[in-house]
Prior knowledge:
This is ABC transporter domain-containing protein. This protein has 235 residues and is of the alpha/beta class.
Amino acid sequence: MHQSVISMTHLKKEIELAKNKQLLVLDDLSFDVKKGEFISIVGPSGSGKTTLLYCISSLLPPTTGTVLINGQNPYGWNATKLATFRRKEIGFIFQHFQLIPALTAYDNLVLPGTLNGHRIKPATVATLTKRLELKAELHQSIDALSGGEQQKVAIGRTILADPDIIFLDEPTSALDTHSRLLVMTILQELVTTGKTIVMVTHDLTLASQSSRAIVLKDGHIQKIVEAPTLETLIF
Ligand SMILES: Nc1ncnc2c1ncn2[C@@H]1O[C@H](COP(=O)(O)OP(=O)(O)OP(=O)(O)O)[C@@H](O)[C@H]1O
């Protein structure tokens, strides 16, 4: 039996649009993610994918229902414990990169791992950037890099920080097909080392390379597809 890394029970999320006006974004979602799984979350625009990712990753408390990460409720923790947990145990790769503009590309790459107490060697950075085919000069400002290069830095820094669970929101939106495949290959390798990955994507080709896909529709789980293929993912 694999242990559950994320466990979600009857999760409901409402967002307050105005006083006494709630939008029901997620309605009664339950599922478990096991250690070493590569889960994709797919579905039409507005179906609730990003909201679900935020709820299960400690960023956004559900309105009702429970979220457990490694058996614990992150929304019950104080700010210090939550911040330490987010820094050490989990990694986020956001759609809009969230890089630090005042730093160089290299410093963006090593900062989260360094804050976690890892000594990240230049050779380790060089090996990873070579695999990502990140050819930009890394000692220039992050702003000088193209969108695709910045996305590779965002992916690389999370890998270097070495968290147990990685959450990704449209991680390859700025990349060409070749680079998407490179990133997917690296993510799949991470899963074989015991990392757990949860990825929101519009790209069904990417989702078809995950081990299980959750298909959302109008805030509900429409279906859960084991070993998804392009055919079984159509929604
Ligand atoms: N803070 C918010 N304020 C108002 N509406 C919101 C907010 N967050 C989410 N929504 C709405 O909730 C619904 C689900 O949003 P969400 O971003 O989770 O969907 P999504 O499936 O990730 O969409 P996309 O694929 O377009 O990114 C949408 O109708 C969205 O407009």
